[in-house]
What we know:
The complex is a heterodimer of chains A (85) and B (574).
Chain A: H1 2-39, H2 51-54, H3 58-71
Chain B: H1 3-29, H2 39-42, H3 54-65, H4 69-77, H5 82-109, H6 116-123, H7 126-157, H8 162-182, H9 187-206, H10 214-217, H11 231-252, H12 259-284, H13 301-308, H14 316-324, H15 335-359, H16 365-371, H17 375-395, H18 401-437, H19 446-462, H20 473-476, H21 478-502, H22 508-533, H23 542-567
Amino acid sequence: MRDKFKTLVQWYDEMLSLPHRSEVARELRDEDDLFMLLLYSEMVGIPNPVYYYTLELYPYMLEKFHDWHLRMGMEKSPLDGIRCC
Amino acid sequence: MSSLLVAAIGIIIFILGYRFYSKFVAEKIYRLDPNYLTPAHQYKDGVDFVPTNKYVVWGHHFTSVAGAAPILGPAIAVYWGWLPAFLWVVLGTVFAAGVHDFGTLVLSVRNKGQSIGTLAHRLIGKKAKLLFLFIILILVLMINAVFAWVISNLFISYPASVLPVFIQIPLAIWIGYAVYKGKTKMLLPSIIALVVMYGVAILASNIDFLQIDVVAYFGGEGAAGLFGMGAVSSAFLIWIVILMVYVYIASTLPVWKLLQPRDYINSHQLVVGMAILYLGLLFTNPAVTAPAASSASDVSWFPLLFITVACGAISGFHGLVSSGTSSKQLNKETDARFVGYFGAVGEGALALVSILAVITLFPSAGDFTAAYSSFAQANATGLGNFVEGASQLANGLAIPPGIATTIVSIIVVSFAATTLDTSVRLMRYIIAELGVEYKIPALSKMHVATSIAVILSAVLVLLPEGSKGFGSGGYLLWPLFGTSNQLLAGISLLLISIWLKRQGRNFLVTLIPMVFLLIMTLLAMFNQVLFQWSWFGSDANMLLFVLGAVIFVFAVWIIITAISTLTKNDIKES
């Protein structure tokens, strides 16, 4: 009985936090997108003074980059230099 | 007649509808497949697409769709007697709303979690989508105007509710920050916020000083106010300006800062409110004093009843929520039955208790008839009657009448304010989307779009003179809200029917409520636009005539396009 009540309260809490959590995640994702745009900026024609330093980050960013172009509605990578899929 | 008996009959029909009819629809018509990979799994991104427990999705879905509208519509519709309103709420929920909310959810799940607007584009074409956007735009514009008036009116009628409602804003911001920065759980802070609000409500009900009574500040009802207007009109002006400034800020802030934490507090209020009302009903079992059917009516129930009770029986707005967010969170396709259909049942239960609160309020049938002497009177006093009736039910739980009235009015104002924020935000998105479609980039800027939304709403609520004088332009628009909302529902049912037909399935379960709803709505609209609001009508009103005529033409256009799509047999989709 006590366990059931606990689960009920958990569901209730989860129900309340559901939209909040996704909104916070969306904000963080937008920040990530901006960061990634800065990293890949020179590929879309924006000069990037720290290009040399960002180069070595690319392998770590590939997975996120793949998620990003799918989210933007592009089935394949839009950038010639980077073929993630 | 015992109100408990009426409630029991309604609830039993709801349960039977869920147990048998929704099962039939789920298995034979929508053919839910437990192994189907839902968009929540297919596009899982931890943000929009998140597989979630069905009880959690139901709770979120229900609190998103339940607002002031399922209370307001039935409280007015009892004008034709309680039986027609009761029957439409109960049967409408079982055979129309349930199938509609459930159907839009399934349709969206089967189409990558896309929204109804996008699906209209895919199923009927681009032009239909644009017309659809225009109808939604006019719909949200009306909601802004109507709800700004509703809130101002409640603030004037129940000044003790002002302070608790305003205290909710800093509390919500505090919760938003606490959760965002501190990653704390939300349950405890939002319950504390609710306790603080109700504590302030109790204080404000007993201490005159804490009641923000703008009319009294001007010297009472007969006194002069601003710009040569009376005290009441001036109070309306002040409240509407404050509300418009507030919605501007609220709809441009990130949602986690104010809107969502406010929604959490309001979700508790929904639970508390429904519990108080149903328990009050159970303990007091008040007699139904209103007549079952009212013969003295200046406006016919047919077809107006079906658009007066919009949310609560069937509402196009639910389809926007179903296909907008709920469909992206469904863990298994079979959960759609519980979330969609049972969500509609929850809304029906809220509308049912709204009817019961009003029809048990008056000591005798004569008092009821006197209070509901004309349709205009029902429109003007319906919500006030609900507040009084609900506080009478709460009184059965030993809550003193003054405090009960304040708490019920806080609940109604909070719901109305949530709807207002959301619809201003929605209007901003639609204006931006139209800006993109028609290549006017300025419209897609946040502050430009929000300014247009807020100014148009303010003009609409302030310009026309309603029967209650200055500031009641929103009230004049209420009949139009019902029709456009029902049109949206009808068009959504049409989309589901097209989809079902393309799948080669029996589409009568959605086609029959669709035909019924569209006929009732178009008939009511045609009557109102031509014989009531036009220049030779009984109640000439150019604003309503123009808006009504635009919606009517758009709706007929969409329906013709959709029916021609429905009769084509060429496309088969997965």
